Amino acid sequence: MNQLVLIALRRPYTFVVMTILIVLLGANTVRHMPTDIFPNITIPVTSVVWIYSGMLPQQVEGRITYLFERFLTSTVEGIKYIHSHSYFGSSITNIFLQDDVDVGRAEADIVGIAQNVVKALPPDISPPMVMRLAPSSIPVAMLQISSDHLTPAELYNLVYMRIRPLLVTVPGIVLPHPYGGQDMQVMVNLDQQKLLARQLTPADIHNALQQQYLVLPSGDIKIKQTDWIVMTNASPLKIEDFADFPIKREGNAFVYLRDVATVRLMGRVQQNSVLVKGKQTVILVAMKSTEASTLDVVDGIKKMIPRAEQISPEGVEIKLVNDASTFVKDSIADVLHEMLMAGGLVGLIVLLLLGSWRATVIVWTSIPLSILTAIIGLHLLEETINVMTLGGLALAVGILVDDATVMIENIDRHIEMGKPLEQAIIDAANEIVVPTFVATLCIAIVWLPLFELGGVAGYLFKPMAEAVIIAMLASFIFSRTLVPTMAKYMLKDHHVAAA
Known about the structure:
Layout: H1 2-10, H2 12-32, E1 45-51, H3 57-75, E2 79-87, E3 90-97, H4 103-117, E4 129-133, E5 139-147, H5 152-167, E6 173-174, E7 184-190, H6 192-197, H7 202-212, E8 220-223, E9 226-229, E10 246-250, E11 253-256, H8 257-260, E12 261-267, E13 274-276, E14 279-288, H9 294-310, E15 316-323, H10 325-354, H11 357-380, H12 387-416, H13 421-447, H14 455-480, H15 482-498
Helix pairs in contact: 1-2, 1-13, 2-11, 3-4, 5-9, 10-11, 10-12, 11-12, 11-14, 11-15, 12-13, 12-14, 12-15, 13-14
């Protein structure tokens, strides 16, 4: 360890260059390092959602959920446990994977099984939605879209078709379906009395629509030099054309759809609504992906709001009603405030005890360099700047100053013995190298059990332990390199003046 002191005294410019590189690299890392509330909790969870409208929960459980779980457990490897819910017309299966499992491969297996099991499920069921979930994928912003002129169906259609695709371009954002409003579609409203008068049932209307509303390829036809594109009339192009569908033949006459029903373009039966001051609005919840920064996602949303207003009809108001970045900024500001206060008080105590502003500057220099080194290490470990890592750095500030303070105080004691400055630095380093090294290891060992934690607790406290350990090791190295170098040049004039 003392060889570092001798190298620092013989080649001071090496450590000056090292310090400059740490400052530049650390500053660049702080600017580009993701910032979030808590560390990324990357527990592998895959959610599979089945939709089969009209089926009772008991039937969903027996005919969909049970069969899908059996297929999963017989094919997919690395499952930790399965948590399923069966609802009216839907089934949600959450698959928790082992920590050391290849998530991409497991998800591919789940998707493959979901496609194969469709044949064993009730007829006409659609393939499921397969989504990756993570506890750190939390809502970070909420947009309120309202208008005094648009209907709930038109407002929903605007958000879903125009505003949502625009916001998807924000890096790191995850957008579920909007809440409120009505999904616009073609609605056929049957008149029960007219159906009875013509001896028709809703099933007859359904079958007639299925037979006549078809999607068929058209093709082309070449006549001389012209290649004509042919369009079939298998599906109507206008809403009014649906009313001309023949449903039943009675002698030489036909019963058309307009005779027993009305066809309109409108919203489907509304299952959720969002009311703001008695007026229906649409809420768009923005979430972030696991590796994204909350501040970056929210800033991207704020920049997109003016563009969304430009593509919206006149009178549409887009308002940011919930902003999680405010809490993140306040939390980071609080931790930084405590960190700066601790560093300031430590520097003041050093100034009062040693009575030298030069020694105080040396101590104050080692603190931010150790913190920057810890931030660089956290970045290499793919951690983020969050409350836990900043809390660990704030906790380490009071400890970081010990190595530099003890070194400076011991150098000052040897100078008072009348020794030359360089010899005083070497003797002071030889005396404290073993105690300070053991003390640093003891503090680092205390945090090692946190690395054995699993689950959410492990994801939360491991970054704090990493921040403290890296900062402590960096402080010890700086006390053997940078502090002796600065002491040789800053304490030299002080020593000469005292002589």
